[in-house]
Every structure is written in structure tokens, then in C-alpha cells.
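Format notes (please read before filing issues)

Several people have asked whether sequences and C-alpha cells are stored in separate files. They are not. Every record keeps both together, in the order shown below: the sequence lines, then the C-alpha cell lines. Line labels are part of the format and must not be stripped during preprocessing.
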Amino acid sequence: MNFATWPNAGAYRTAVDQPDALGDRELEPRNVERAPGGLPRMYSGTFTTTFRFATGRGGLALRCFTHGSENIEQRYSALSELVRYIHNDALCRTRYLARGIRVDGMWWPAVVMDWVTGQPLNEAVADRLRDPDAVLALARQFRDMVRSLEVLGLAHGDLQHANILVTDDKLRLIDYDAMFVPALAGLPQTEYGHRNYQHPSRRMAPFDSRLDRFSSIVIYTALVALATNPSLWQRFNDGENLLFRAHDFTSNGSSELFRTLLTNNATSALATALLAASNGPVQQVPSLEQVIEGTAGTMPATQAIPVPPPRHHVPVSRPRRGITGVAMLATLLLGLGIVAGFALATRPNHVVRRSSAVTHRVKPLTSVPIIAARPVATPSPRPTPSPAPTPSPSPLASPTPAPSASATPSPSVTQHLSDSAALEGSWRIDEANVQAGPMVWVASAALSGPGTIVLQAHKQSISGRTASPCERQTNLHAAVVVGAQPQTVPYDEVNCVGSAMSGEVHVDSFAPDGKSFSGSFWRDGTKLGDFEARKI
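Then the structure lines:
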């Protein structure tokens, strides 16, 4: 389609009121939200115009394009297919309609999304400035949301205050025009995000799952800084940012904001990491998790934020009670570095941009500690950001570590193996996943050389429910040296919508007969869950 021929907002508003002009049966002209005077109310963005409809199952948004790209159908079809199967509170259900709305006799594409009223992140922060704990709660929620997208190999592409909504004390993402999903690998970028949140070289960034890395560091650093010093809001917020502006990222640390953050013990480590990312190549920006891990040790060493026991069976260290309040904000910063909340709900998400006042105090989220990996025969390196101008290389650019050369079967185990062939066949893997809860995998095992079994596993159930058809097609591949303990081996996982990821299996112990072992799954230095595998 020629960009110049796309209808404008006024043409869409006229069409919305016409009978038989809407391509989705749930949408009816009589149910569209109307402005004073009776015309359909429009919510206009840079490249879209959105209308709100009431339906029997709640509000829906019809998103019409005033500009578009040649592969808009491919992009939104891939996104629509993915959100049908994944469970992530930050994303809402999305349907691409090739025949979405008819304007002057011609059909145009549109997107139908769930609608819910929410508050943009900058407004939510402004309402919480007098409650540092509540701002830190937003920082924890943001960290969890970013990690949940990275684990799935996704990137929003335009993380900024207006695209992150706070509703019911949870974070939702809207505006998916710049989003990356694995099925779109190889396509070019079509949008480059809000300049106050993007790397100076964003236009040279590859279109992949790393797109959110810089903006996530920007947002997290701003939230922690505001919890430490709320007066920064009046000095540096201009309505189009949280704290940082585009010129800060090219100032080499000389801007007033960077000078302020670098000289404050509570924010200097995060600010140094952000400065290094700004000065380095966009392809080498570390993940937010790497930055937090790399800076936690440089913050004041005090007590961590109190957390309750986890809801599923993941061994955790006993939490300590923390001290809250302005006088002990530094203690919370350390807690942010070592605590993460992984409770992601499995119900559909509901998102739309719309401001609403917050009239109650927000309580900090509860979280589950991340357990450090036990020592292994050959630990896998986990890059962390350096204060130097050039950050450490991205783990996505590094090959998955191979099994340790010293990972050979222990004599105390293998001497009890009467028949290696007995290990072939069906296995069951019970995982205590920190995001989804209890998860059961069924696997088939085949021998591959002396003492090595290759496992091909598929999901069977998640949190007590039967896995969906897509989830059952998820394939996890790993080769384990029988009896070697401890050992670290790579795994690869691919699901039915083409989302691929790789990580590590840390094997901690084998049973004497080799027919069961336990350990944990890791990816990019983040623990995904403990597991126990046994021959069935």
C-alpha cells in the first residue's frame, strides 16, 4: 500500500459509524464510545487512531493505521499468534484484521486489542513521590516485566512512560508497532522509539530481542533515583521523560543529571553502568539483569527487603526483615539488586492508554529471592557491565557454553549402572518454575555415546492445568552426562510460534542408579527454576 493513501483520523471516525464497515463481529457502531456532541471519541497517536467499543466481554480497542509499512500484516499477524499462547501480564490479547474497517468502499487493516483504563508510568510516579517504597515497588515490577519479556525472546521496542500503564498496581504495555518477536527475525526496524529513552545509536541497532536493553536501564535507574531523591522530579522531569533526556546520553557524563547521580552513593553505580552503555556500541548494551547484578555489590551493604516464602517448591534462603522509610532507602536499593518478583498471572491482559487518578497508597510487591547457582565443574561466564566506557559483550552474541570437559560419570554412580540402555525411554521432569509455578515435562531419552543421554522434552502441565496445544509442542533439547555431578550443559528450547531460546542446565546430583537427577535451569544468569528428572 502507498503510505500517502492511508485514511486520516477523520475518515476513520466517519467510517466507524457506518453499518457493515467494521470487520469484527464484536464491534458495532452503536457501542462505540462517543464524545460530547455524539461523534465517536478518538484516541490519536503518531501513526494510529483508536476507538473504544463496549462488548459483552468487556471493552475493546479498534486501532486504525494512518501510516503503515509494507509488512504490517506480517508483523501484527506474528504478534497476534504469539500472544494467543503465551501468558504474560504485560501483554494484552491482540488480533490483526486484514479487513478491519471499510473507508469509502475500500477495506483497510486494523488491530483489535483488549481495553482497560490505566495510568501512564510518569503520572503514576508523580502520584507516588511522597512514598519511596511505592516508587521502589514500581521499579521491582518493571524489572520483573523486562525479565519476563527477555526470557520469551521478545522486545517491545519503545519502552517509555506513555507505553507503560499502571493499573491495579500492575504494569501493562501498549503500542506494539516497534515490537520484536522471534518470527520477525530478519526484518528491518520501522520505528526507533522515544528519543529520551533510546541509545544514541538506536538506528544502527539490530532488530532483535535486545532492543529494550538500553531503555530498560534508563527507566530502572530513574525509578531508583526518584525513590532515593524525589526532588529530582521537579528539576529534571519535563513531561516527556522520567528523568533522562536525549542529550544526557551524549554528554559523556557532564550533564547536570549525570553529575548529580554519579556523586550520590545510592545511584552512582547504576548511573556509571548507564553511562558506559551510552558511550559503548548499541549491540553491546548489557541486559538490565546484568546491570543490577553488577551494581548490587557497590551499594551500601544493609538488610534486604523482607519477602514471604515462595508459592511453589523452590529452595530459598531464609529472608531477613528489612527496614523501610526515607531514613533507610539505601537498604532497599540493595534489596532491589538481589530480590525479584516472578508472580506472573495467567489471565488475559487488558491494556489501553488513559490517565486516571490514584487515590490509594501502593504497597510494595512481594518477591521471591533469586538463588545463586551452586559451584559447577566448569562455570559458565556471566558478563556484567563494567564502569569503563565500553560495557561487556552481550550474551546473545556469545555461543552457548559446551558441556564441561571434566563432566564425566562419577565411579560411585556408574558402578551401580547395570545397563545403560535402561536409561533410554520416557522421563518426567518436575520443574518449580519461578514464573509459571509447578511445571511438568515429559521427555524421551536416547543414548549418545558412553554415559550420555539426550533428552527431548515437551510440556505436559503448567500450574496444575493441562498444557495448551502450543505449549505441548514446545521442545527442550539437552544432553546430560550420566552420573556427572556437578555439571553444566547447554539446552535449546523452541515453541510452536517460533520463539527460540537457549540457556544452561545445572545438574547438582544424580541418584546411584542414574535414573534420576536434580538441578536448575538458567538463562543469561537468571535462574528459571529448580527441577527433578526421573526415569518412568
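For reference, the curators noted about this record: The longest helix spans residues 132-151. Confidence is low (pLDDT under 50) at residues 297-406, 411-418.
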